Amino acid sequence: MSFASEIRRHFGKEDESGIKKLQEDIRKIYKDINDEKKSDCISDIEKVCKDLNEIYMDEDTENMVIETIRSLSFYQNLPWFREAFKRLLSFLEEDYYLRTDAMRNVLDSGWASNESYAFSEDDRGDAFIKKLLPDIVEEFYLDLPEDVLEDELLNLKRDAFIKRFFLGRYIFRNPDSLKILEDEYQYLYKVVEKEIQLIKDRPGSYEKKLMEDILRISQKIADAEGIRTYSSISTLQESLIDTYYKNLIAEYPDEADDLRDERSKWLKIRGNDTCPCGSGRKFKKCHGA
């Protein structure tokens, strides 16, 4: 890129023809995805990268790029598109001027989504964790306050918290199950990294906070839809534990008898009993804390 081009990009007047070309090339990406024109789509992304190098980047243009990344990310269920999408993410990572919090968040989200699909196809990954992560990842990078969420996104947030509850239980039961994320999937691991130590050290506090969030959001959804929901933390906890073990049994039918026994212990546990998690601590000082 020429020095004059770099100066124009940072300090020059907005090039309306350049913006128009960028918009046209972005629209063509969507058309070629829908028409399954793979090579044309890859070429479109290269054109968009070139367009971005030639225009002045103001706030409106950056917002357009952010929305493009966010929406294109949903097409990563198409294996052929993932590599092309990675090219766009890599270009934006390398270009130093795109460093607002909003851009950083959408890039992290794009990479995490890319890794999520790759992990789902990785034979070394834990099958149960593969089913929990997508909603957790999407909610983590949603970057919107709860009070502005409605309908589908509010349901997504609640479902993600429920799956975090399941994930916490599963990590405690299978501490090595996230090793592959830590080693090879940095953006996925980032989603759960801060919570792993809390899950190990204070599982009761971790679960209680999640259940409070789930109950609050469930009540908000119920009020909006005019339906009934959980009446208390205790009824919610019983439902979560029951659902968690039903999901485990469905995933690991050969272990069904042991899992049913384990579920029964959790549903009957009292404060001074030994915690069924295997920590050796009393329930009231472990998962019941």
Please specify the SSE layout and strand pairing:
Layout: H1 3-11, H2 16-34, H3 38-54, H4 59-72, H5 79-94, H6 101-120, H7 127-140, H8 151-173, H9 179-184, H10 186-201, H11 203-225, H12 233-251, H13 256-268
Tell me about this structure.
This is SEC-C motif-containing protein. This protein is an all-alpha fold and 289 residues long. It has 2 domains: 1-121, no CATH class; 124-289, no CATH class. The chain has 13 helices and no strands. Helix 2 runs antiparallel to helix 3 (38-54), helix 4 packs parallel to helix 6 and helix 5 (79-94) runs antiparallel to helix 6. The longest helix is centred in the middle third of the chain and has 23 residues, at 151-173. Mean pLDDT is 85; it is low at 1-13.
